[in-house]
């Protein structure tokens, strides 16, 4: 039976007075891409580091497959692949050499050619790590996390600092891991990344779980269908916007308005009438479905990137 | 499995080292350059020449005889000149010493009351000391000849390594520079590289792999050891082929003593890595330790002439003992067993430093 699951039971970790992770429990099932979401300092990285065995949990137990991270770390290390936040290989080592070197640390390893093909770095085999672009370095880090053909892969903010094209490339590679039946646990503070990649998501803030589920389930918790975004003057009045039909919430940042509604069609008509009666113009109007970002804002009152 | 990992670590460290031109320069070319430079300046016995002015105001057969005797002394280069010329050159620091034979020298020599004058620049201490003692010997000899007698007391000089060619500064310097290279390779590479790896998260990345830390450390040490051996043979080779300096002792004893010293300095490197948080701090500490040791441990010049208050410090420094042991084997042909006291002190350093660093060292 394939069991590449990761299970946390009531895990806590403190640094002095700061409770970085507070009684956290979750399970990432075999073959799933599981997202840990939260703002900076929410405890995502600490959680990952405890699962990887880099830090010991103060309380609680962590299992990978059937191995206890606390007592069977050596066996755990053989079956996990890790990509840390900072790409951390030697500067003047070539891509091919790095993969061969790291492969040598494991009992089981994948051929270098295969790994290069997987992350599309075949033509960079003899290039020094330091000469790679940011996206290529991230891809190498990903390949290094795969050298031992791991059961569980940990990716800590894999696309931070990358341009949109490089990010798309990386998403493709990560999505391919899923089709290889690997369990992937990734942290991100990009909501769209989580929505695009993850089967299930755990949202944490201040080290505590605040929501868990598939992206669709989570967004459904908002109980709104759509969000109307537009630029409009203050003449519209936030209170008046709130009284429009179907509106559940209004967010305004200067002239940027977001109106959440469960009846977008009626809300839109009402908005047009209101604008006409106030003799003011609405620009850049579009309707989008609500995102995890909106959910996070709703749950914590704070934006993810703050 | 373990052996393969160790070999892998060794090879990657070796590649990284060879690709870093700066460290290759400092590790190989700098000590070689140092040996060649000092070797050529001070190394060959006939290469040192002191420029001496000679003013002959007597112009007699006796003064010519004195000039002839002076010219026989190999380290002196005598230039005949007038008093004015000589004074001008002394003041311009072109010469540091001159000998004047005053008029009437021959006559007063016969009456037994002759003088030659020596004018010198006081700031040129070393030249004055050497030349004055040479002149003293010469005058002494002439005096005995004049009274037609044999001096009752003579000095019989005998080397502790009889039957070998004239030894020079290079024989002293070469083992010292080898020790210095060992120290800098251990101090500046191990400590700082480990701190830099820690800073950049490389140690964290390794910590999530099954690679044992002991293998990582052993790989580093093995690579450094290899470098030290290459350095040592390179310097010994230059000594042999360029300066004709032969090792008196056995090469096995020599390498054994260096190995003990190297372990002590690797321990020092790890000690630095365990107390420094950033690579800047590590580099600062390493330099602070490196420079005084170079000057207080007898690498370039003997520690015998050190001020008394520095002596306890000199005796404390590990480099002093390594230099002493290695030089005794290299120059005087002692064996490893003869330098066991020094080896003991180095081992003590090694044990203490490893013990302290293993308590303080943090992987993150």
What this model shows, in words?
The complex is a heterodimer of chains A (306) and B (364). Chain A has 306 residues and is α/β, with parallel strands linked by helices. Helix content of chain A is 33%, strand content 29%. Chain A has two domains: 6-219, Rossmann fold (3-Layer(aba) Sandwich), CATH 3.40.50.300; 223-289, 2-Layer Sandwich (VC0802-like), CATH 3.30.2130. Chain A has helices at residues 44-52, 73-79, 95-103, 112-118, 134-145, 164-179, 191-197, 215-220, 238-242, 264-278, 292-300; strands at 6-15, 18-28, 33-37, 59-64, 67-68, 80-83, 152-156, 183-188, 200-205, 208-213, 226-232, 247-253, 256-261, 282-288. In chain A, the strands form three sheets. Chain A has a six-stranded mixed sheet with strand order 6-7-8-3-9-10, with helices on both faces. Chain A is elongated. Chain B folds into two domains: 2-43 and 168-360, no CATH class; 49-146, abc type-2 transporter like fold (3-Layer(aba) Sandwich). Chain B is mainly alpha-helical and 364 residues long. At the A-B interface, helix 2 and helix 3 of A face helix 1 and helix 8 of B.
List descriptors.
heterodimer, A: 306 residues, alpha/beta, Rossmann fold, VC0802-like, 2 domains, six-stranded mixed sheet, four-stranded antiparallel sheet, 11 helices, elongated, B: 364 residues, mainly alpha, abc type-2 transporter like fold, four-stranded mixed sheet, 14 helices, 67% helix
Q: In summary, what is this structure?
A:
The complex is a heterodimer of chains A (306) and B (364). By secondary structure, chain A is of the alpha/beta class.
Continuous helix count of chain B: 14
Unreliable stretches covering 5 or more consecutive residues of chain B: none
* Rg result of chain A: 23 Å
Largest sheet of chain B: 4 strands, mixed
What portion of residues of chain B belong to β-strands? Answer: 5-15%
Low-confidence residue ranges of chain A: none
CATH-assigned fold name of the largest domain in chain A: Rossmann fold
Question: Judging from the principal axes of the Cα atoms, what is the shape of chain B?
Answer: elongated
- Portion in strands of chain A: 25-35%
Order of helices and strands of chain A: EEEHEEHEHHHEHEHEEHEHEEHEH
Distance between the termini of chain A: 43 Å
- The CATH class name of the largest domain in chain A reads Alpha Beta
How many β-strand stretches of chain B? 4
Structural class of chain B: mainly alpha
């Amino acid at each position: 039976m394939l069991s590449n699951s990761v299970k946390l039971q009531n895990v806590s970790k403190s640094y002095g007075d700061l409770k970085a992770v507070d009684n956290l429990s979750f399970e990432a099932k075999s073959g799933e891409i599981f997202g840990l979401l939260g703002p900076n300092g929410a405890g995502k990285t600490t959680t990952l580091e405890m699962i990887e065995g880099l830090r010991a949990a103060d309380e609680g137990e962590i299992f990978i497959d059937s191995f206890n991270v606390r007592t069977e770390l050596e066996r755990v290390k053989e079956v996990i692949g890790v990509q840390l936040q900072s790409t951390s290989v030697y500067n003047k080592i070539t891509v091919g050499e790095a993969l061969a070197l790291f492969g040598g640390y494991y009992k089981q390893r994948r051929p270098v050619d295969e790994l290069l093909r997987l992350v599309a770095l075949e033509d960079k085999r003899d290039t020094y790590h330091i000469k790679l672009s940011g996206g290529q370095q991230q891809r190498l880090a990903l390949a290094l996390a795969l050298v031992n053909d791991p059961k569980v892969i940990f990716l800590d903010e894999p696309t931070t600092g990358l341009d949109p094209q490089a990010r798309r490339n990386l998403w493709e590679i990560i999505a391919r891991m899923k089709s290889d039946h690997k369990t992937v646990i990734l942290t991100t503070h990009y909501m769209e990344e989580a929505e695009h990649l993850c089967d299930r998501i755990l949202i944490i803030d201040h080290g505590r779980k605040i929501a868990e589920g598939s992206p669709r389930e989570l967004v459904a918790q908002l109980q709104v269908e759509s969000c109307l975004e537009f630029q409009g003057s203050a003449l519209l009045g936030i209170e008046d916007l709130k009284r429009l039909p179907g509106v559940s919430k209004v967010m305004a940042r200067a002239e940027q308005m977001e109106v959440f509604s469960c009846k977008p069609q009626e809300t839109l008509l009402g908005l047009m009438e209101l604008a006409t009666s106030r003799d003011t113009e609405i620009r850049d109007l579009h309707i989008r479905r609500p995102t995890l970002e909106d959910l996070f804002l709703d749950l914590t009152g704070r934006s993810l990137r703050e | 499995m373990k052996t393969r990992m160790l070999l892998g670590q060794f090879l990657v460290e070796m590649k990284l080292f060879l690709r870093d031109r700066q460290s290759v320069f400092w590790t190989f070319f700098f000590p070689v350059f140092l040996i060649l430079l000092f070797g050529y300046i001070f190394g060959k016995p006939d290469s040192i020449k002191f420029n001496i002015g000679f003013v002959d105001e007597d112009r007699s057969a006796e003064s010519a005889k004195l000039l002839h005797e002076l010219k026989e002394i190999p380290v002196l280069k005598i230039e005949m000149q007038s008093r004015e010329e000589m004074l001008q050159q002394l003041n311009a620091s072109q010469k540091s010493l001159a000998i004047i034979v005053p008029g009437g020298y021959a006559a007063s020599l016969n009456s037994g009351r002759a003088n030659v004058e020596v004018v010198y620049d006081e700031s040129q201490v070393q030249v004055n000391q050497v030349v004055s003692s040479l002149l003293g010997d010469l005058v002494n000899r002439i005096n005995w000849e004049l009274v037609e007698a044999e001096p009752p007391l003579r000095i019989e000089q005998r080397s502790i390594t009889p039957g070998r060619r004239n030894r020079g500064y290079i024989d002293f310097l070469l083992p010292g520079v080898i020790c210095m290279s060992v120290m800098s390779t251990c101090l500046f590479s191990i400590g700082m590289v480990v701190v830099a790896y820690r800073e950049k998260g490389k140690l964290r990345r390794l910590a999530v792999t099954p690679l044992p830390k002991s293998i990582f450390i052993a790989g580093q040490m093995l690579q450094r050891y290899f470098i030290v051996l290459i350095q040592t043979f390179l310097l010994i080779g230059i000594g042999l082929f360029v300066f004709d300096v032969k090792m008196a002792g056995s090469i096995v004893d020599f390498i054994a003593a260096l190995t003990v010293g190297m372990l002590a300095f690797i321990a020092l490197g790890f000690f630095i890595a365990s107390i420094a948080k950033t690579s800047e701090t590590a580099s600062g500490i390493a330099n602070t330790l490196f420079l005084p040791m170079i000057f207080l441990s007898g690498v370039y010049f003997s520690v015998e002439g050190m001020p008394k208050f520095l002596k306890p410090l000199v005796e404390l420094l590990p480099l002093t003992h390594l230099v002493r042991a290695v030089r005794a084997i290299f120059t005087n042909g002692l064996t490893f067993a003869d330098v066991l006291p020094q080896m003991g002190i180095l081992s003590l350093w090694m044990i203490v430093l490893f013990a302290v660093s293993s308590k303080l060292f943090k992987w993150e």
